[in-house]
Amino acid sequence: MSGGLWPEGVRSAASFTFDVDAESAVLWGAPENARRMSVMSHQAYGPLIGVPRILSLLADNGITATFFIPGYTAERYPEVVRDIVAAGHEVGHHGYLHEQPSALTRDEQIVALERGIDVLSEIADVRPVGYRAPMWDLSWEMPELLLERGFLYDSSLMDADLPYELAISDSTSSLVEIPIHWALDDWEQYCYLPEISGTGYIATPEQARALWEAEFAGLHDVGGCWVLTNHPFLSGRPGRAASLGRLMADIVATPGVWVAPLRDIAGHVRAQGLAPRAIRPI
Length: 282
Ligand SMILES: [Zn+2]
Known about the structure:
By secondary structure, this protein is of the alpha/beta class. It is built from 11 helices and 9 strands. The protein binds zinc ion.
């Protein structure tokens, strides 16, 4: 059953990931949003209500997940980060103030990267091995900056069904890349913030789950890697969380699926000794 990349008896891998953006996602590049109390409260719902509910769901289903946390969120809600770590989940790097790497200079990217590393270390004694670019908008420089700082993997690119070794510059060194896709994100389904994001159309939890299940069926069939990205301020609401719990139960019960945090998937991929694959800059 193994497609070559996965452990014996495994057909596909699946990972539940959560981006704990909270306020940072609407503050970077638009600090005037800080004046909008209702908008801030919409984002605060994630760490205040969504994360505890999601931690319960994960425990109920025996799943270890990956949480990408901007440094600003960690500073504002340190106990939430510590609760995530105490439950055995992985914490990954997600910028400091959710900065879009492609919009920053190389030096600005370094500042955001190092500030995020320092905050996670100070608050939860965590040294992240994984990175996810805010807005999934990786820059061409970032893979090398990550490698220089000891990261094992990135999860922001969309050019494969399976993880691979991303070649850095012309060298033989590489970063594990675990691909993602917009169809496996809850932002497009659920997020509506007037003048900030969305059209006002909000999908039902059943519609979102049907999309994610269809993507899972396809990736499982080809022996791929299904990575779901949810935001606690969106998917932590009760009806959506209940639906997410049903999805978790279905996936855990599917034979031949390895459900794991991204750090474990990346570690397994690294151990396979794959030849690095170069992506030619445009
Ligand atoms: Zn984010």
